[in-house]
């Protein structure tokens, strides 16, 4: 009977089960529903949702199963999150997918990517007002860039205790780009502005495409050396793509490598949401600040595009300002969708990719600046 009782205590129905575990299991199922049924970023929400289910199966201490127990299998996989290993590898894959033609053909679009980062800095100030310390506030602010890998990277350095909720919030809002951005975009623009047609991007030479990742690496890292692990991988991935002679490496980076790391990030981020670690007042505040910052970032890009139109002869459709957040390429697709709703022949995707890739660089630079200022 002692052995039987010991077994019962070790099951998920034993004394370790709490209402918090059940709440998180429901949230995990919601993520799976949104990913599978609603098709909201399934490559993110399905691994995260399944990870939430895994992480909230109650287990007895000492079984070396929990993600928070040293040298358990899940703990070893979580190493890549805790020490910021996975984000640079994701950036390598993103770089190998990225085409800078739109940005190079109209360099002014980089300003929209910079303007969208206003959400990061306002959220940083808001987190300070809510009582978070400066390192926690800096990590929370990066959620406004809609950049999950960067949020994980900076949190692993500055706010490891808040890594779980920050990562979940960042990836959740990345997945909900099609839900959050359109209302903000329509609120801040008129129908006349949404109907603006932009000139076709000029052709960009291969030489320009090869020079840009080299020059971009040096310029951005001299400005923000703290972003070196992220941006070095990002620009290297892009150079592998544009050099042509390394297409085999670029193909691996943007397919097999990025898929493997996406699975590992999604799963381990989800597993880290154990109820006793995740369901806290701080987590609720982080999610609220994340939604606030994402809306601000979207609005900042749209409003700055409208501001630029006061001076530009060739007007910019202000919708593309919303793509200044670094959810690549989801924000650009949302811009395309909203634009087509107004005019079925007005294709904005290529134009939106300019501020979209600029946003990736901008959020990484912002994280590098925060790390340089607030590192211990």
Structure description:
It contains 20 helices and no strands. α4 crosses α16 (247-271) and α15 packs antiparallel against α16 (247-271). The protein has helices spanning 2-10, 19-36, 42-55, 73-82, 86-97, 101-105, 110-115, 118-129, 134-141, 148-158, 163-175, 177-187, 191-194, 206-223, 228-242, 247-271, 275-278, 281-308, 330-342, 349-374. The termini are far apart. It is mostly helical and 376 residues long. The chain has one domain. The model has no long low-confidence stretch (mean pLDDT 91).
Any key phrases for this structure?
single chain, 376 residues, mainly alpha, globular
Helix count equals 20
Overall shape? globular
From the alpha carbons, calculate the radius of gyration and give it in angstroms.
21 Å
- Count of individual domains: 1
Question: What is the helix fraction of residues, given as a range?
Answer: 55-70%
The end-to-end distance, rounded to whole angstroms, is: 53 Å
Secondary structure category: mainly alpha
Q: Low-confidence parts, pLDDT < 50 over ≥5 residues?
A: none
């Amino acid at each position: 009977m002692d052995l039987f009782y010991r077994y019962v205590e070790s099951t998920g129905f034993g004394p370790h089960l709490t209402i918090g575990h059940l709440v998180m299991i429901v949230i995990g199922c919601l993520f799976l529903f949104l990913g599978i049924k609603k098709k909201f970023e399934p490559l993110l929400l399905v691994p995260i949702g399944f990870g939430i289910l895994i992480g909230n199966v109650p287990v007895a201490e000492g079984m070396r199963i929990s993600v928070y127990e040293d040298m358990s299998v899940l703990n070893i996989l979580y190493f890549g999150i805790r020490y910021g290993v996975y984000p640079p590898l994701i950036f390598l894959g993103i770089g190998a997918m990225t085409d800078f033609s739109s940005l190079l053909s109209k360099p002014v679009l980089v300003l929209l990517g910079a303007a969208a980062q206003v959400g990061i800095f306002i959220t940083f100030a808001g987190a300070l007002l809510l009582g978070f310390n400066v390192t926690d506030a800096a990590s929370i602010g990066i959620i406004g860039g809609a950049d999950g890998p960067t949020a994980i990277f900076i949190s692993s350095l500055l706010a490891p205790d808040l890594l779980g909720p920050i990562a979940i919030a960042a990836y959740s809002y990345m997945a909900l780009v099609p839900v959050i951005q359109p209302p903000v975009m329509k609120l801040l623009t008129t129908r006349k502005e949404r109907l603006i047609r932009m000139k076709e991007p000029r052709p960009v030479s291969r030489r320009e495409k090869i020079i840009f990742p080299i020059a971009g690496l040096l310029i951005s890292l001299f400005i923000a050396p703290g972003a070196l692990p992220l941006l070095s991988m990002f620009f290297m991935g892009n150079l592998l793509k544009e050099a042509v002679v390394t297409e085999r490496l670029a193909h691996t980076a943007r397919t097999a490598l990025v898929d493997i790391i996406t699975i590992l990030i999604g799963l381990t981020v989800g597993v880290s949401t154990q109820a006793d670690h995740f369901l806290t007042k701080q987590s609720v505040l982080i999610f609220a600040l994340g939604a606030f910052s994402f809306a601000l970032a979207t609005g900042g890009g749209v409003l700055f595009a409208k501001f630029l139109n006061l001076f530009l002869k060739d007007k910019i459709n202000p919708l593309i300002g919303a793509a200044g957040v670094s959810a690549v390429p989801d924000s650009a697709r949302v811009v395309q969708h909203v634009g087509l709703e107004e005019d079925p022949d007005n294709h904005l995707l290529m134009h939106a990719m300019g501020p979209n890739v600029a946003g990736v660089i901008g959020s990484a630079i912002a994280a590098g600046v925060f790390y340089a200022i607030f590192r211990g």
